[in-house]
Backbone:
């Protein structure tokens, strides 16, 4: 059961609800987000009488019976879809489709500035790029770290783009949060519960990628960790799951999108780059993702994919990305949506 408090709730009213739960012998999880205060009542066989007893308390907006172990994340816990607001122009989960684009890794000032200019010009609203890279081999390029964050931020600001970048470790959360507008949890960290809980207290949106072999329920439970710790601004990202055929890097599970629509109120975007690992498959799968109801895309783009320090084989050339956005706009229109565009300006 989830109790949603009114926006003008007082601490005394929250205490009263907690007290009521305690008197009934129920354990509670309090989640105080930037916009909503929610109270999860864990492990109960709540019935209509119990929900009515909570509903009658001061400061309570609504009470939801939740059928799933992921209480806050479940669509049962909210009457509306969550919109994750990054800034005034960029909102995930509304009618507009948000496109995030940029290199796999930030490699140099020249590379990231050229890419930011190209993706902003083509219509992306969020710059992506890894400064801390989760690489399979410890001998592969690990990213530029703090210097990379600086380069990403300047390149994003130069073109009015928001910035999403991965946080690999609990120790880097504060550092990454000072530069990024959205903190990315990579597939390899989806089960890193201490990192997830730490991100629950960050006041920035979280992009939560699906684990390499995570079920949808495991993925939603990972989101629940973040929400239970207080951060309601989560964007889910389908990035493919591992299977037996090495022709593609992963199998992009687009059926997850309509399934998630019924299970959660959170927005869902798709990563066709890691989802396929194959450059020629990126645009077709982007179009399919939008047709299937995705709220956005995150796409790898590089000025010289052949020389990229990571994931060149799945990175688009600039002109291919221009084509991708134009085709996505047509598909978005066909399904009654539109692609959200960043302002095409350059700060001098
Ligand atoms: C990435 O987006 O940079 C990345 C490493 O993706 P994933 O965690 O999905 O493999
Ligand atoms: Mn990559």
Residues:
């Amino acid at each position: 059961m989830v109790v949603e408090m009114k926006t003008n709730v007082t601490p005394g009213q929250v205490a009263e609800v907690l007290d009521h739960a305690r008197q009934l012998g129920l354990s509670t999880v309090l989640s105080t987000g930037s916009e909503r205060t929610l109270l999860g009542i864990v492990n109960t066989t709540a019935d209509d009488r119990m929900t009515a007893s909570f509903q009658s308390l001061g400061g309570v907006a609504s009470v939801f019976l939740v059928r799933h172990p992921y209480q806050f994340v479940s669509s049962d816990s909210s009457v509306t879809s969550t919109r994750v607001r990054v800034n005034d122009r960029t909102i995930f989960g509304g009618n507009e489709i948000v496109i995030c684009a940029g290199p796999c890794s930030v490699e140099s000032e020249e590379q990231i500035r050229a890419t930011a200019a190209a993706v902003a010009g083509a219509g992306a609203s969020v710059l992506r790029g890894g400064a801390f890279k989760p690489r399979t081999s410890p001998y592969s390029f690990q990213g530029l770290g703090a210097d990379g964050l600086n380069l990403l931020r300047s390149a994003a600001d130069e073109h009015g783009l928001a910035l999403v970048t991965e946080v690999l470790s609990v120790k880097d959360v504060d550092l990454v949060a000072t530069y990024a507008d959205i903190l990315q949890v990579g597939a390899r960290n989806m089960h890193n519960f201490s990192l997830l809980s730490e991100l629950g207290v960050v006041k920035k949106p979280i992009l939560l990628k699906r684990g390499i072999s995570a079920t949808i329920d495991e993925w939603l439970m990972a989101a629940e960790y973040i929400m239970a710790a207080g951060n309601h601004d989560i964007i889910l990202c389908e990035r493919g799951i591992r299977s037996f055929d090495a022709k593609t890097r992963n199998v992009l599970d687009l059926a997850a999108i309509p399934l998630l629509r019924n299970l959660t109120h959170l927005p869902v975007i798709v990563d066709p780059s890691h989802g396929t690992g194959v450059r020629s498959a990126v645009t077709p799968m982007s179009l399919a993702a939008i047709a299937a109801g995705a709220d956005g895309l995150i796409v790898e783009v590089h000025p010289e994919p052949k020389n990229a320090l990571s994931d060149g084989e799945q990175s688009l050339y600039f002109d291919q990305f221009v084509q991708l956005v134009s085709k996505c706009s047509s598909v978005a229109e066909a399904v009654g949506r539109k692609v959200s565009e960043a302002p095409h300006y350059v700060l001098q």
